[in-house]
Protein: Phosphoserine aminotransferase
Organism: Psychromonas marina
Amino acid sequence: MSKIFNFCAGPAMLPTAVMEKAQAEFCNWQGLGVSVMEVSHRSPEYIAMAAEAEQDLRDLLAIPENYKVLFCHGGGRGQFAAVPLNLLGDKLEADYLLTGQWSKSAVVEAKKHARITETDIMTTTIDGKVTVKPTTEWPINAGAAYLHYCPNETIEGIEIFDLPETGVVPLVADMSSTILSRPIDVSKFGIIYAGAQKNIGPSGLSIVIVREDLIGYARKAIPSIFDYEVQAKADSMFNTPPTYAWYLAGLVFKWLKEQGGLVAVEKNNIAKAALLYNFIDGSNFYSNNVDNSVRSRMNIPFNLADDSLNDTFLSEAKAAGLLTLKGHKLVGGMRASIYNAMPIEGVQALVEFMNSFEKKHA
Ligand code: PMP
């Protein structure tokens, strides 16, 4: 079989080296004669592995001491509910910034628990590209329990690199599709959360990085498994955690360290994204309508000049070993998700295919 590249937005491709390691020790983990999936999360072997995974993540993101790292159930959407339930305390209001479908979905969940002020921070440039208003124009409301935003909108392909100054208002970020793609200054955030199935590992797990002083204010009715205080006290093992996903995330963290950490990973991601965007920009057949300053390095949506060719594009791409390029149903077109695990060869193969498809059909 020739090389297959999977451009799925999530669950996304995982590093081949990680999969091979997992495969090699699938039935006999650490010489125990059983799979890691069959081992108790209370066993010394599992606890040591879990702690090492956390430490590796702390090293990669330079997470300060005064932050807890939680390995939770429920993916990204689980945190759409957990964030308000944990952070509102006796406050009634929270602020949400809107940049696309995922930030909007977060609002729908939060509205069940709080008075939400939503602010659309999208705008267009003079040449008609979609962009995000400068952080200095973002509303900061001192009465809000927190300010929530999504630094990478997976569907629209919008990534926000600048950080706002929010003063005493905790900044909460849904980093599901950008976490670990570049270094970030964790100390600027109250909470960072992410569903795992893009840059971390398999689905079912979400990572929450939470500043300690924000823990302990959960609403009484919160389900215990979503209570950061309960999970922090139990080292994320209040109940049975998603053990296989946690293990695999640990392997991904080790792989990221071997790549040279996030500085090296970011360099590679910049090169991969530039390759694809430059090709799209140089063509009259393909287009991307996001302004350069906020173009996602992880999710690159694009359109064909003629929509009626979409199905042919997808089937010819599949035949060429390039999978899952269909855009999200809400926006249509195409989308190439090129997370950390996508090698530059995958992007080169995509560009070559797009080039020959254009020559054939333009
Ligand atoms: N936030 C973002 C930015 C996402 O891309 C996704 C899923 N694609 C989610 C949240 C929801 O994640 P989950 O399916 O794990 O609930």
User: Anything to note?
Assistant: The mean pLDDT is 97.
